[in-house]
Amino acid sequence: MGGSGDLDAQLRAAMFAHLARVSAAHPDGVPSDVINSFRFADAPMRLIVQPGIRKPAQLDAALTIRTTWTPPGAAAPYADEVGPDGSLRYKWRGTDPNHPDNRALREAMRRQAPLAYFYPVARGVYQAIYPVYLVDEDQSAHEFGVDLGQYPNDEDDSAETPLDRRYTRRLTLQRLHQVLFRPKVLRAYESRCALCRLRHAPLLDAAHILPDHHPHGEPVVPNGLAMCKIHHAAYDADIIGIRPDRVVEVRQDILTEIDGPMLRHGLQEMHGAKMFLPRSGRDHPDPERLEERYVQFRAA
Hints:
- One of its GO terms (molecular function) is endonuclease activity.
- This protein has helices at residues 2-25, 32-35, 100-111, 154-159, 162-188, 229-236, 252-255, 261-267, 287-299, and strands at 30-31, 39-40, 43-44, 53-54, 64-66, 88-91, 115-122, 125-138, 143-148, 204-208, 224-228, 240-242, 248-250.
- It is α+β, with helices and mostly antiparallel strands.
């Protein structure tokens, strides 16, 4: 038993290290073939499989789960969604509680084993979210509850009130949205800075137009802008602003400042430029959010 447990722990640790490497190299989402390039004990091991629950033969508990990509406007084959209590729900394989995949999920929940969750940002492209834990099962709804992050401590959980649990579940959902925000924004902008068109994804951020704490600061693409790290910092510092018509302005004192080539080419020459827009209109920055943020810039 001890050897089996050691193997399980070693495999999961190796998988998480692999996912950390490939996620850093693909901040706009990792292609499935890159995820499946994982090797353990010098042997290849696929992490993404059909239909979505992966339990290698040498393990008793599930290792990874995956949500199927659904094109915009199409019906999802599996309703991996948010439950009435605000938690993330992951559907069984079919409706048989004794299906091997469902037993593997149940065993992962019993052991409190950390899994990797692959959430699609495009067809064949995923955001790897890890570690995640299966924390409860609703057999009548054929689904498990998923928590993103540390497994709840039994002692702490016993002291929680229903309000505490609802708040914790809401935080789980918020974390999911935040994790998906960057790859979705970078993919919408074709992994280029909306201002200078820099195409190196590791040097790009997903900037919020309105911040997290704002009532309309949701982590959604219309509230996001793909920006290189220099322009993101300048935007947050109100050195540059973007008008509702998507034209860039540079603060007046910066325009008249004399410094090196970075200031001249990186900031001053942005003044009056039209920002780069996503191909899809549904991903364009929201003009009302831009206007509110621009008012803040003008007041700075």
